[in-house]
Amino acid sequence: MAKFIYDAALDCMVEKNTRAPMVDPDEWEPTVPRLTLDIQGYQSPMTGEWIGDRRTERNHMQEHDVIPAAELRKLRKLKNKRFIEKHGLHSLAE
Question: Does the reported pTM lie above 0.70?
């Protein structure tokens, strides 16, 4: 996926590597970055605390050392015994 930065000399957004303008000046069609909507608020099942945005959710999960249930499908079993020992990840070992 292309990454864009602002070029002050051209006064427009340009592709980071090629410096090609994000929008062709002759054929002006606005291109907009994709936005991710915030989460719906919910009450933490662990503490009862209200979680109203992603930052609060991220901090809460980090504080209580938990991960979202959706992430469980993405977890892989670890094979490197030295890595497992070093980081205490015995529950993720094959």
Answer: no
